[in-house]
Amino acid sequence: MRVAVIGASGYTGMELMRILHRHPRTEIAAATSEQRAGQQVGEAFPALRGVVNATFESLDPKKLIGRVDAAFTCLPHATAAPVVAALRKGGVTVIDISADFRLRDPAVYEAWYGPHGAPELFSDGVYGLPEVYGAEIAEASLVAAPGCYPTSALLPMLPFLRAGVVEAAPIIVDAKSGVSGAGRTLQEPYLMGEHDGNFYAYKVAAHRHGPEIEQEASVAAGEAATVTFVPHLLPTIRGIGATVYLRLKQSLSTADARAILVEAYEAAPFVRVMPEGETPRLSSVRGSNFCDVGCVVDERAGTLVALGAIDNLVKGAVGQGVQCLNLTQGWAETLGLEEAPFSP
Questions:
Q1: Exposed, middle or buried: residue 55 (CB in 10 Å: 0-12, 13-18, 19+)?
Q2: pTM of the model
């Protein structure tokens, strides 16, 4: 399959090309970058020198029609939609890594991102969480890959909401991310001198991923959920650790809660349920498409603590996107993604 990587000079683009290179059924037919047009991929990313033999080109969706069968749009939010629309008009399957097609309510989208760039396609995107929407993704030609924070929080949380053992409100999501989630930026907070040894919360209860988490929690619960989302920045490059606090509706032991996770993900190749007494670690998922999940019940407080860990660039972005592409083509969803985590 001929694949285009659109917006290929960021961290997600680099990670995607690394994955597509080893995928047995894809070839990188185009890689776009406005800043690096004319430059070879190996010059921009020395790690890919001699691995990805492609040259960056400026983006012109019309020139990609007929050249590619599928495209990953790794573009900033609110700018991807018009590109997606042009590609879909030309019959290209699109996996969108931006937030432009993740939300179901146009009013919610506009409140957080502004006017939508392709309102005629707004409801066409399938939310790309394979462990929940695998059947729908398999029939889709436009998939909206979930955000990194939502993936880390939803996978440990949703089974309990679907089982009806926890309240849909209030839900507290406390998550910590490595700096690569901010992309390749020269903004002051992400400079080494500012970031190393530092740790802080940001955009408290005001992050754009909050409505996405709330949306999917509501679907799972079958009623309106209320989520308080607090993201933090970790002094590391890769990884997200999420801790979700849920109010129990009934008495439940940690063993019982873990059994709910095991049943929910027994057929999910990339979700690993931690043994009782063990919690997910960033070092155990780095560089992989795995999401490690676990849970602890605080019976005294009536609280279920659900935990998740992912690599934000892989399961939190393009690895999950490739998993979705595999499903749309009827391939094994693990294809090209069997890489074990790199540790230490």
A1: middle
A2: 0.95
**DSSP code of residue 270:** T
Are 70 and 172 within one domain?
A: no
Q: What is the dihedral of CA 266, 271, 273, 278, to 10 degrees?
A: 170
Q: Reduced to 3 states, what is the DSSP secondary structure of residue 341?
A: coil
User: Which entry of 148, 291, 295, 324 is annotated as an active-site residue?
Assistant: 148
Q: Is 147 exposed, middle or buried (0-12, 13-18, 19+ CB in 10 A)?
A: buried
Paired with 30 in beta bridges are: 4
Give the burial string for 286-316 (b: 16+ CB within 10 Å, else e): bbbbbbbbbbbbeeeebebbbbbbbbbbbbb
302 φψ region: left (φ > 0), alpha (ψ -120 to 50), beta (else) = left
Q: What mean pLDDT do residues 35-42 have?
A: 93
Domain residues for the domain of 239 are 149-312
Residue with tokens 């079958």: 222
Is 291 among the catalytic positions? no
Q: What ranges in the chain are assigned the alpha helix state H?
A: 11-22, 41-44, 61-64, 80-89, 106-113, 130-138, 148-163, 192-195, 209-221, 254-264, 319-328
List of residues 6+ apart from 319 with CB closer than 8 A = 15, 19, 288, 289, 311, 313, 337
Q: Tokens 């940690």 identify what position?
A: 254
Contacts of 117 (CB under 8 A, 6+ apart): 78, 79, 80, 81, 82, 85, 100
Asked whether residue 186 carries a pLDDT value surpassing 90, the answer given is no
Q: How confident is the model at residue 190 (pLDDT cuts 50, 70, 90)?
A: low
CATH of the domain at 301: 3.30.360.10
- The CATH number of residue 48's host domain is 3.40.50.720
SS3 content of the chain, % helix, strand, coil (to 5): 35, 25, 40
Locus of tokens 């892989």: 314
